[in-house]
Write a structure and sequence with these properties.
alpha+beta; Transferase(Phosphotransferase), domain 1; five-stranded antiparallel sheet; two-stranded antiparallel sheet; 9 strands
Length: about 350
C-alpha cells in the first residue's frame, strides 16, 4: 500500500538519493525484487517523483530505541548518513483498525515543513522480505530532534525554567499550531509529552497519530469526522470531544491551554480518578486552578490567566484562533519586558 503523501514533497533535499539506488523496497515494485532506476531516460524531477516516498532500506540503520507507545516504537537511526528518528507503527491486537488509523494519521502533516513541527522524511507500508515484521504496519522516517520533551523539562528538570523561556516555548507551540491549522490539520493530542525540544532551544510539535485532516476549517462546525479514532489524552482533551462531538481546530486551542498552564505552574492539571475528572470537565466546566500568587501576584500572571480562560472556554467558538493566540502570547512577552 503506497503512501498517500504527494511524492514530490516528502524527501528533503539533503536526503535526495543518487539515480542508481540499488536494491530497496518500493510501492512501485514487488517486495524482494532488486532493481535500479536507469540513469538514462529519466529527468532529475521524474526520478524524485518516483523515489521521494520510498525508503531505501540498505541506507537505513536503526541505532537504538528512544521511546515507545501504544501504537509503535521510535528508534534513533541513520539514513543516507544523516541522523533520523524512525517510528515503527505496530498492529494493535485489541484494535487493529486503530493502529492503521494511527499510521495514516501520522502522515497528515508529512508534506509540510515548519520550524515548529517535526518533519517527515519518508514513509511506507512496504517492507522487504528479509526485513518483514508481522507486527509492523508501516515505517516512518522523521527528522531527529533529540529525545527531550516538554514533559521532561517541566517535571524532571533540576533547574526550573524562567518565565521568559516558558512563554517562548508557548509561542513556538502556537506558531506550529497556526501553521497546521492554516492547512486544516487538527493535531488533537497536544500535550507536553508530544512537544520535543530541538537544537537552538526550539519546540517542535510531534506525534500526529490522532490528527485529522479537516475538509473545511474556517468555521467551528466544519470537520469531516466526529471525535478522534484514537482517543488522545483525557486531561488535555477538549470537553466537546469528550462528549463525542465533531472535532475542530479549536480543540487544539483547549489542549494548548492545559499545556500552557503546566508550563506556567509546573504542576499536574488534575488529581483523582479518571472518570470523575472527565465528568467534572464536561458537566461542571472543571479546569486547572488559576488562583494563588502565580496568577494573581503580578501583571504577567493576570495576563496569563486571561489567555488561559479564553483558550479553555467551554464554547469552542469563544476560543481564539491559533493566529490570535500568537498575538496574545506576544502581549504576555511585552508584559514580561515591562515588569
Amino acid at each position: 500500500m503506497p503512501s498517500p503523501i504527494p511524492v514530490t514533497r516528502l524527501l528533503p533535499r539533503e536526503f535526495y538519493p543518487s539515480v542508481n539506488l540499488g536494491p530497496c523496497s518500493s510501492p512501485l515494485e514487488r517486495p524482494g525484487k532488486d532493481w535500479a532506476v536507469p540513469a538514462q531516460g529519466f529527468k532529475p524531477r521524474s526520478v524524485l517523483k518516483l523515489w521521494s516516498c520510498v525508503i531505501n532500506w540498505p541506507e537505513l540503520q536503526l541505532l537504538q530505541p528512544i521511546g515507545s507507545g501504544g501504537f509503535g516504537s521510535v528508534y534513533k537511526g541513520s539514513y543516507y548518513g544523516k541522523t533520523v528518528a524512525v517510528k515503527k507503527v505496530k498492529k494493535c491486537t485489541k484494535n487493529k483498525l486503530a493502529s492503521k488509523h494511527s499510521f495514516w494519521s501520522e502522515l497528515n502533516a508529512a508534506h509540510l515543513k515548519h520550524d515548529n513541527i517535526v518533519r517527515v522524511v519518508a514513509a511506507t507500508t512496504c517492507i522487504p522480505d528479509n526485513l518483514e515484521n508481522r507486527d509492523n504496519i508501516g515505517t516512518i522516517i522523521m527528522e531527529y530532534t533529540g529525545t527531550t520533551t516538554l514533559q521532561q523539562l517541566i517535571y524532571g528538570s533540576s533547574e526550573p525554567l524562567d518565565m521568559e523561556t516558558r512563554v517562548k516555548y508557548c509561542k513556538d507551540i502556537a506558531q506550529g499550531l497556526h501553521f497546521l491549522h492554516s492547512h486544516c490539520i487538527a493535531h488533537l493530542d497536544l500535550k507536553p509529552a508530544n512537544v520535543l525540544l530541538a537544537g537552538g532551544d526550539v519546540c517542535k510539535i510531534a506525534d500526529f497519530g490522532c490528527s485529522q485532516k479537516l475538509e473545511r476549517c474556517k468555521g467551528v462546525r466544519s470537520a469531516s469526522h466526529r471525535g478522534c479514532h484514537l482517543g488522545g489524552t483525557y486531561t488535555h482533551r477538549a470537553p466537546e470531544l469528550l462528549r463525542g462531538e465533531t472535532a475542530t481546530l479549536k480543540a487544539d486551542i483547549y489542549s494548548f491551554a492545559i499545556t500552557f498552564w503546566q508550563l506556567i505552574t509546573g504542576e499536574q492539571p488534575y488529581s483523582g480518578d479518571r472518570q470523575p475528572v472527565l465528568y467534572a470537565v464536561v458537566a461542571y466546566d472543571l479546569r486547572p486552578a488559576v488562583t494563588g500568587r502565580v496568577f494573581n501576584g503580578s501583571p504577567v500572571g493576570h495576563t496569563c490567566k486571561a489567555v488561559l480562560c479564553m483558550c479553555w472556554h467551554k464554547n469552542p467558538g469563544e476560543r481564539p484562533s491559533a493566529k490570535e493566540l500568537i498575538g496574545q502570547i506576544e502581549i504576555v512577552q511585552d508584559t514580561l519586558k515591562t515588569k
